[in-house]
């Protein structure tokens, strides 16, 4: 099995964790900055410039079009590989199943899950359960949906007020973008939303969140770069409680001087939230980049231990050949997948729907 894996991916065995993003060496943040008062909407010239750059990057067309899951996913490497497999192998035989196994493993579905799924289909094929490749495709669809059904549990951000959502994940996975899209979604549902700029490690991160806030008329609580993340988020919850906010969404850093430092910071954020509201955070939402493949597994393991992750968002599933990681995550952790990112626009964050996802990956019929 390991040899097979290596042949397919050129990598070591799938469970082997790859190192996380390289760490940057930076000096400790200045104590003065950490003690700064929360500043809302007051941008420094540098932040304003960064915000402009972000605005250009995240600008949307005047009338955003909501595309179907199939439209969004059919261009992905994973969907293209599955379609081409059935085009090349229209006949029902063992070769079709061997290639299916290769395709699923290459897409990072995971070796064990793939093996179980394919061997089950093979058994059924040998018992002549399928009349043709179309029937096998239907069975494959049902098996893939079954792998995901138990994790397709939407997030209910009602019930608590303010409902506190803590967003975590490594750098560049799409945390801030996802928060912007969520702010838009909740605002459109006529909820009062507030954002907390808890990624104080990079100045651009604060400006990026402020830009999403400004564009959606959602207040953003921020301090300067280098401020203490826990104190920013603590202030934000206090403010949200005082103002009767419905949903508070807190951004966090994905990279600090050291990985242990990051995990300690996130644990501290959780602790201080609990001082204001014992039940907060009500959701620890971990964002995973759908293009990272098996490394996502070790990321979830690590963040779950430090922060008690309660839900996942898998981004960038448009275009990637590695979207199979959604199945691997479902199998490994059983954590609810709340949303998936199918593009960069505000409309492209979708409540996770197992049927729509699998349908978008597979050819319609042969
Ligand atoms: N194609 C695509 N790009 C995305 C998606 N979500 C986020 N991105 C992009 O990923 C990049 C990093 O996002 P960002 O929110 O800054 O990541 P963060 O470091 O985790 O906060 C940005 O260029 C986003 O536009 C998605 O669902 N699809
Ligand atoms: Mg960010």
Portion of residues in beta strands equals: 5-15%
Helix content: 40-55%
Q: Which spans of ≥5 residues are poorly predicted at pLDDT below 50?
A: 1-62
Distance between the termini: 31 Å
What global shape is seen?
elongated
Q: How many distinct helices?
A: 15
Q: What ligand species are in this complex?
A: guanosine-5'-diphosphate, magnesium ion
Q: In terms of structural class, how would the helical and strand content be classed?
A: alpha/beta
**Overall number of strands:** 9
Q: Over the alpha carbons, how many angstroms does the gyration radius reach?
A: 22 Å
Strand order of the largest sheet: 1-4-3-5-2-6-7-8-9
N to C succession of SSEs: HHEHHHHHHEHEHEHEHEHEHEEH
Mean pLDDT: 85
Biggest pleated sheet:
9 strands, mixed
